[in-house]
Fold this sequence. Notes:
three-stranded antiparallel sheet; 28% strand; 9 strands; alpha+beta
Amino acid sequence: MSVEPNFEKRYRLIREVIETIVLTLLMFLVINLAVQNFDVDGQSMETSLHDQERLMVDKWTYHFHPPSRGDVIVFLSPPKAGEPNTDFVKRIIAIPGDVVTIRGTTVIVDGAALNETYINPIEQGTGGNPVENLVVPPDNYFVMGDHR
Length: 148
């Protein structure tokens, strides 16, 4: 009579171990399909993101709606001859169809100067070559780092 309860206890234990392993594997797969880790390399996103900071990037959101102005995105760098592609972390400044103008430290999108509260006011714009009336093509985005 004592053999049956022992067998039942062992069966329950084995079943619980298998269920735990299967659930753990399922959670691992779902998490790895939904998010990905990236490391920030460089100071182009200071003061928002710091060099060597680790990010967890949502890989599903943009399947349901397009990126919008102000989003921080990770994308593959444009190909250069002889150089491997790397991941860039930048902020979307303009979306397809927007007209971008940069004069000194002022970024103007569709005729309105951006109020970029996420960067140091002294560093707004590029300080580099001016951009005049650049129309962002369809399926493209105009991005910049926060540290300019």
